[in-house]
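tool_call predict_complex ligand=pyridoxal-5'-phosphate
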Amino acid sequence: MLKKITNENENTIYFSCARHAFKKSLELINFKESDTVLIPEFICRDLLSSINELGGKAIFYPVSKNLKPESLPLDKNLRAILVVNYFGFAQNLDIFKDYSLKHNIVLIEDNAHGYLSADKDRNLLGQRTDMGFVSFRKILPVYDGAMLYVNKKNININSTHIFLEKETLPLRFQIKNLFRKFNRYIKIPLHRYIEIISRYSRYLTTGYYLPQPTADAEKRIGYKLYMSHNSYLKTQKVDKNKEILRRRDLYNYFLLTLKDFNIDPLYPNLPDYTCPYGFPFYSNKKEIKSISRLALSIGFDCMPWPDLPSKIIENCPNFYKNLYFIDFLE
Ligand SMILES: Cc1ncc(COP(=O)(O)O)c(C=O)c1O
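tool_result ok
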């Protein structure tokens, strides 16, 4: 059942996930079949579904080891460029802005990782270009949720209402949430142990600890359109300053604690106003075992990122496959 509420901020549209928000951003520029979007090679493959559902095509740009663009190719059907604030760290926009002005192309900020994060001038990430989106569930313990921000100076939207799904959340999520609450009092990450048991049983049945991307992941979003009412209410109640502080403290803790491990932090410094999604670093499978154990001992998960697009994975620089991160989701 859908619930409709008044939108206090008419520059925003809510969805269940960032893929829907990205798709909507393309629809708002009347993106057609045969149009193309420039996106980084270093991206999770699921995001291609937003482009493919509209019949368009992704053109990839390479990134260097510090995840900055190496070059921006040109294509005659190009309509938009995607700029990614990896792990909540602000991407420098200069080269993208020059390119978009020169070629009259829309700039879209993928801030799926960076809710609550800002750049050095305190501009909120996800709101620095023509359009931008965030994914709440990566930062807050909510079931789902994403928001598209549209700069109305440049693009026309009529967003006077927010549509939300009134639904019963899956039992698995409810149980995990209950354990998450216990964790706050007893300081034992029971919800993580549940996750480990569920991963182990997945390993026994499928041979993989983590869910494997489906063959369709690059083609179909495969997820409902609207955010759930429950998640929306929770995002409204969050103590934002406390969450930013918690994440910044964790970042500094891992910078210090992992100093003697065989790792190469992606960002050796934590800039002011950055609200990190997690602690990203280059390393290898052997080292990850002990780092995962350490992270788990204080309730956090360590995993590789991203699941690269099939077109990229076969022939990419090695460092694309050696990035891991400790997820700070509570
Ligand atoms: C950089 C980036 N953008 C977008 C997405 C898609 O987010 P969602 O799962 O909310 O659709 C992801 C997913 O991991 C991501 O890492």
